[in-house]
Amino acid sequence: xxxxxxxxxxxxxxxxxxxxxxxxxxxxxxxxxxxxxxxxxxxxxxxxxxxxxxxxxxxxxxxxxxxxxxxxxxxxxxxxxxxxxxxxxxxxxxxxxxxxxxxxxxxxxxxxxxxxxxxxxxxxxxxxxxxxxxxxxxxxxxxxxxxxxxxxxxxxxxxxxxxxxxxxxxxxxxxxxxxxxxxxxxxxxxxxxxxxxxxxxxxxxxxxxxxxxxxxxxxxxxxxxxxxxxxxxxxxxxxxxxxxxxxxxxxxxxxxxxxxxxxxxxxxxxxxxxxxxxxxxxxxxxxxxxxxxxxxxxxxxxxxxxxxxxxxxxxxxxxxxxxxxxxxxxxxxxxxxxxxxxxxxxxxxxxxxxxxxxxxxxxxxxxxxxxxxxxxxxxxxxxxxxxxxxxxxxxxxxxxxxxxxxxxxxxxxxxxxxxxxxxxxxxxxxxxxxxxxxxxxxxxxxxxxxxxxxxxxxxxxxxxxxxxxxxxxxxxxxxxxxxxxxxxxxxxxxxxxxxxxxxxxxxxxxxxxxxxxxxxxxxxxxxxxxxxxxxxxxxxxxxxxxxxxxxxxxxxxxxxxxxxxxxxxxxxxxxxxxxxxxxxxxxxxxxxxxxxxxxxxxxxxxxxxxxxxxxxxxxxxxxxxxxxxxxxxxxxxxxxxxxxxxxxxxxxxxxxxxxxxxxxxxxxxxxxxxxxxxxxxxxxxxxxxxxxxxxxxxxxxxxxxxxxxxxxxxxxxxxxxxxxxxxxxxxxxxxxxxxxxxxxxxxxxxxxxxxxxxxxxxxxxxxxxxxxxxxxxxxxxxxxxxxxxxxxxxxxxxxxxxxxxxxxxxxxxxxxxxxxxxxxxxxxxxxxxxxxxxxxxxxxxxxxxxxxxxxxxxxxxxx
Length: 863
Hints:
By secondary structure, this protein is mainly beta.
């Protein structure tokens, strides 16, 4: 797939005009409504967002995007670097997960789907946009999927539209619309257009600039040059502050765009089915401008039409759908500040009536409590054949067959887990050519419903779109892995990623195997609910609950796997298989501990990081403490660490040196990412080198080559071969997606490094960069290769200062000899050897020249 870019000067204008706006933003997360703060979507958001904003309460939005774009340009300019080629990552799935038996009615699940578009003439051809998972296409109703957005700068999409007059033309608006988001995961980089069914894409930012949070795109059925789109807020706590929020219009098939009003927080837009001049739209944001809007002149001017709706100031989000069989009938669903309500008009939006009053339109939890997530998941669709048949999606799916009264559609149980498909609904789309086909986008992926049969089928097999938090490897079997995901719990594979099975539901977090007895498997659910399996991961039981952070630290002792650790604001230790978790510290930290690690060479040495979160009246700090007695007593070393105070996303211990430890900083602060101590925290050295100013999430120190560092960032993996002095992008095969976690295991002399991504499942590399110097070779110079890199052949040139026995050999990146090119006595002078690379695969190789004078080496790259 090829991609071209169209970025106009207006992008710079938007950026410059927004800098002052965002520089002054400061709104505490604690000010969110209590009903929102208690929900899982908020907890997820809070955990991600605060790391990137700390010690402030707001991410420096425009600055962050500038740094992101700068990093992308650097990646492109170094595209053929040797490390990029050496670290060749392969996907391990999941490409869909088999759910637990109690949720088997949901079928295979994948990651969150926000955008869905169905071909106007073929109900089997569908495009979807996933949350940080890219754009996917099917031509057989979802039985098979094509990954058609792998190389795009943005992998998060909130809207997709197909030109009904020319279905090869596709528009994809990047960036999710959720009232709660953080920068790297959900924000977008403009609009993408394809004129060949998704094979190639043109990036367009003219007019709206970046970042973007598209909520809807519609192509006029009367004129393909006219396109309208809505952009809404991406950050609830910023309110309607983004200058590109609102209703946008293009009259040249999407190349240039003009904002049509001063309205912000636009959520939905639709052309009238029979009148080309009429367009409808909705505005949220809880202001006096919120509500339903009508344009009578193809979107040039807009009039608010709220008669009968709830007060404008209470409309936080509003979605609607027009009846195709009776366009005077329109249904709308509104999320206020606590609850969701449904409305209907029978006169084209002039007057509204609330319907299904007193009915909860959120979801029923397993403990019988109704809750509402309309700020996060909200959608509506009217059956094109029947104006009385309407579906509303929130936590659950709700249905009316009489156009008035909604009831939950849960054929498989008495609460949200019995819902029609995986709960948390984001998009409902009837196929234009055959409305018997309904496609549903939700937190569990994409589903196809046959309306007349009242049945739904999972269409998630083949979609690598899971949002992982953590991954762990079996200590002796490379085919067994386990990992934790957003809203899809814990899943395990026994066949190297070919298939994955869900073993716990919820939001899956830390997990690991007992390295002496891998039949014992440990896993955790959000906020520190700790689990154990004694049958290899088939079933789990609860062994503790510590009420920690969203991703609570949980691991086993480095020399005794029977001993377990976890934490909240104190350290908890479980010392026997049957014993409880006990608190081994008392009032250790004034804040919840975010990250905790134990030395692999001396388990007496431990390190933790704990942030003070959002106390604007005080100086926010990130507490770092070190223990030398296995966690019972701790020393505060925070003030010894230089650099700006930023959230410490991970603490890491050195694999072979007991006094050496690292902290990894998240957030935005140039040159302030990774610090190293070799004396248990007394002094620290900055080893950030030339890492881009992109949030960092994890650090792996190669135990075999301890100067080799790997860091997981919001755009992939970076590598340093000199202890952090210089860094190279090393994500060949991984899209530009947040990598949150590394796991490493060495089995039968094969070294496996696994990377958990938050949107594209799990990746693996087995060709870690090796240090050729540690394989009997002493470098004394270079052999010249003419072009290096090469594709088919290259000429190796070397000079003998005196006659000598000569051996010229080729080694792979593991230091293993592949072949001798020359093995003879040669007289002095310049020598050449033409290397035929036909039988060499792409990658880095080492030429080794041995003479009576010594050894010379040179790296060559086969493209």
